[in-house]
Amino acid sequence: MAQEPENMTLVLVREIRAKQDEHTQTLSDHTRRFEHMEKRLDDLTKIVRYALGQSSETQFRQSEQEARIDDLFKKLEQLLNPKEPA
Predict the structure, then answer these.
(1) What is the pLDDT of residues 32-67, one digit of tens each?
(2) Rounded to an integer, what distance in angstroms lies between the CA atom of residue 31 and that of residue 37?
(3) Which of 3, 4, 11, 86 has the greatest number of beta carbons closer than 10 A?
(4) Interatomic CA distance for residues 18 and 8, integer angstroms
(5) Main-chain dihedrals φ then ψ at residue 2, nearest 5 degrees
(6) Which helix or strand (DSSP H or E) is residue 15 part of?
């Protein structure tokens, strides 16, 4: 018996399935890469928040210390240069 020509519908469906498999693999790769990028971005965000927090905390402490040093110098000047009664 002679072989019948392959059904064109089956040929097209096989080609579509093969292309879908390629797309599925590409989408999977992209998803994995985006997840990796999101994790790195989250890590970077945490680092920046920490750095900015440390910076602002340091500035606050420094301004407090400068104010205290100014007060101590005023007291020292008062002790070293007492005002004489007139």
Answers:
(1) 999 999 999 999 999 988 888 888 888 888 889 999
(2) 10
(3) 11
(4) 15
(5) -75, 145
(6) helix 8-80
